[in-house]
Amino acid sequence: MVKIGGLILGENPLLLAPMEDVSDPPFRTLCKEQGCDMMFTEFVSVEGLIRNAEKSLKKLEISEEERPIGIQIFGSELNSMTEAVKIIEKYKPDVIDINYGCPVKKVVCKGSGAAILKEVDKMVSLTKAIVESTSIPVTVKTRLGWDENSIRIEEITEMLQEVGIKAITIHARTRSQMYKGESDWSYLGRIKENKKITIPVFGNGDINSPEKAMEHKKKFKVDGLMIGRAAIGYPWIFREISHYFKTGELLPPPSIEERVEAVKRHLKYSIEWKGEKNGINEMRQHYTNYFKGLRDIKEYRTALITNNNEYDLLASLDRIVKKYNIESQV
Ligand SMILES: Cc1cc2nc3c(=O)[nH]c(=O)nc-3n(C[C@H](O)[C@H](O)[C@H](O)COP(=O)(O)O)c2cc1C
């Protein structure tokens, strides 16, 4: 039984990764429906929070149906971090997750995200102060190290556990790899063999099928898997993996009706959450994946990413069902 502090996640939990501009409430609703066991918000800037930035505050809004859910923060200044934690507490997340893994320049150049991997002492003292400032369980998401010459993840996991974090998620790449190359889960395997580590260790990086999920779970013995990109436009990855874990059987992929029904609802929630203009714009990044693998989808996808009107978009989606249902009958 996997537990984050007092929070029970069950066996083989599947976690939705925090993803900026993706893991928002509309997308999270679809992943939750498909059996995701725990979710995280997009990362939230602590500097934005303490300055009352509307965009940052909006990211704290979570609902009861989403539980268990973690709010993820990034920052580098101790006072800002603990001040932000006080703001977050009012939203009552199940955990507060600290981002020590974001590789993008605008974050690392301010000393946040993966930049902290270059200052392990600071990482530990910052984490200790955050843990001590709140009664909400604190977790960490990080990478293997800054680059291949400075991988200290095993030692870091021990130190962070020592100062009181309740779980760690490790994206098995270094910062300098960004998203390139293969993730290297062997470090996760070694951390799981380390008897001193008692907190749950979640593995992250490149899980994109039930078979790969099973293979990685068995080989590296992680407590759960966090899934990011494979869920974008394909929330069914959660039900497929959990069904495979339970039965050893592969589920058939979603039908075209199911895909279109999911897209319609995603669009609707997106518009409700962000307003018509932004809701429609931000949905555009999802269409490619929702309809991946369908022959001759390009013309239909173009209609979806160029149209600004909800009714026209719904009509385009209906045309997709019609086309592919007819094709499957001939
Ligand atoms: C579009 C996008 C946005 C992301 N934003 C965040 C973020 O806000 N916080 C975070 O910890 N990681 C973020 N990540 C990294 C993912 O959480 C995850 O670690 C990474 O994608 C590797 O997992 P995957 O191979 O399953 O996608 C982001 C990744 C993507 C693709």
Characterize the structure shown:
With 330 residues, this protein is an alpha/beta fold. The chain has 2 domains: 2-247, Aldolase class I (TIM Barrel), CATH 3.20.20; 256-329, Orthogonal Bundle (Non-ribosomal Peptide Synthetase Peptidyl Carrier Protein, Chain A), CATH 1.10.1200. The chain contains 14 helices and 10 strands. The protein has helices at 25-33, 46-50, 54-58, 78-89, 105-108, 120-133, 153-162, 186-193, 210-220, 237-247, 256-274, 276-290, 298-306, 310-329; strands at 2-4, 7-10, 14-16, 39-45, 69-74, 95-100, 138-145, 167-174, 201-204, 224-227. The strands form 2 sheets. Strands 3-10-9-8-7-6-5-4 form an 8-stranded parallel β-sheet. A two-stranded antiparallel sheet has the order 1-2. It starts with a strand and ends with a helix. The protein binds flavin mononucleotide. Flavin mononucleotide (FMN) binds at residues 17-20, 22, 42-43, 72, 99, 101-102, 141, 171, 204-207, 227-230.
What is the element layout, followed by pairings?
Elements: E1 2-4, E2 7-10, E3 14-16, H1 25-33, E4 39-45, H2 46-50, H3 54-58, E5 69-74, H4 78-89, E6 95-100, H5 105-108, H6 120-133, E7 138-145, H7 153-162, E8 167-174, H8 186-193, E9 201-204, H9 210-220, E10 224-227, H10 237-247, H11 256-274, H12 276-290, H13 298-306, H14 310-329
Parallel strand pairs: 3-10, 4-5, 5-6, 6-7, 7-8, 8-9, 9-10
Antiparallel strand pairs: 1-2
The chain binds flavin mononucleotide.
Flavin mononucleotide (FMN) binds next to strand 4.
